[in-house]
UniProtKB/TrEMBL annotation:
Organism ancestry: Bacteria, Pseudomonadati, Bacteroidota, Cytophagia, Cytophagales
Protein name per UniProt: Flavin-dependent dehydrogenase
Domain FAD-binding: 4-161
One Pfam family of this chain: FAD_binding_3
Amino acid sequence: MQMVDVVVIGAGPAGTVAASYLKKQGYNVTILEKETFPRFQIGESLLPNCMTHLEESGLLDAVATRNFQKKTGAAFIKGEKRCEFFFSEQYTKGWTWTWQVKRADFDQTLAEATQAKGVDINFECEVTRVTCGPEQQELEYKDKEGNEHVITCKFIIDSSGYGRVLPRLFDLSKPSAFSPRGAIFSHLEDKDRSEKASNNIFVHSFDDNKSWIWAIPFSDGSTSVGIVGDKEKIMDMAENGGEKYKEFIRKFDDLNGRFENSELKFEPRHILGYSIGVKKMYGEGFVLSGNSTEFLDPIFSSGVTFATASGLLSAKMVDKHLKGEAVDWKTEYEDVIQKGIDVFRSYVSGWYNGDFQTIVFARDIHEDIKNQICSVLAGYVWDHSNPFVRKHDTILSTLAKVIRMKEQATL
Ligand code: FAD
């Protein structure tokens, strides 16, 4: 039977960041990954704060060699209204740019860099059973031939993303309070990009705040285009090979014909009901990171940054634990990650209930306010000196109310 210090389930951003950090501290780490890489994954627009995590885990240099599309901001558009954020103007001191990436390339780059540090990644190995105890953890996994294996370790980090291995096996998932939404997307040719849009992410709101479109340009001249909306709407758009999706993005007014004659790089894919919560992020011998914890919504592109943030922090806690130091998993891990998630929860709610859009599309938005919101959009949701982080649960609704009153008064 194979024995290592730490087994990480999943080789996505959360898993590779966690494994690379622990390897740097001298542990014997193995990743078990169900798929073979490169594999498609959604989640292509990063936030500047994830650069901090990639740097600390020693993965940034590898990603920097790949010529990914530089992202310096984000634009929100609704009909005639438009608001563009630039991370160089943000309130929090931190990274002012990041990348937009095809996840197949990005995740493979992370995986190869992690292997180069000495981490074993066993691809096409699906974890099927886990037994946890005070001293030793046991994982059963199936390889591509269907052979079963057992590996033991001192600690498990579950970074299995949408696979949610431990939440499923240990009954840790809980439903999300958000209504069930879905997304349909493809990559499209985007030849005359420079005339119609910048290279940053564009978010187009429509359908009375209920639906939106993302356009995420890549460095090879293609662009990821997705539509998010109610589950029923997305199911309808996905029928007959995504016929209505194709028609919509070709004709949608606010896209100004940008994709009218573009070829799709692959048939549209769709994903439904992705928002999910978790009852607990840790237990005896294990911790959850990335999408194995809670996933809110794609609107602010926060998923990968939460994956790298929680991958890094979980690895630091495992390091402490394995050194024999006491770890308060609730306060030192779960509460920290939860705080960040809760900040984004307020902004996601504010997007769909219209408060966030009232603020950013206001006739005049104060520069300081914009810069503070910009730091949230850059992923700096643990900077409590920022009032838009500290008072996240009330500040959007209060400010939106004042703006609506002011705008009505001047009509
Ligand atoms: P993953 O990247 O999912 O990696 C988990 C790995 O675990 C996978 O490789 C999987 O094969 C493996 N695995 C699963 N089960 C098992 C098993 N049983 N055994 C072994 N291995 C297993 N985020 C952004 O940052 N920006 C965006 O623009 C963005 N857009 C999104 C759009 C949509 C429509 C959705 C739904 C999400 C979006 N996200 C975005 C979120 C993003 O997809 C995730 O947050 C991110 O991929 C999570 O990373 P991870 O490392 O936790 O998991």
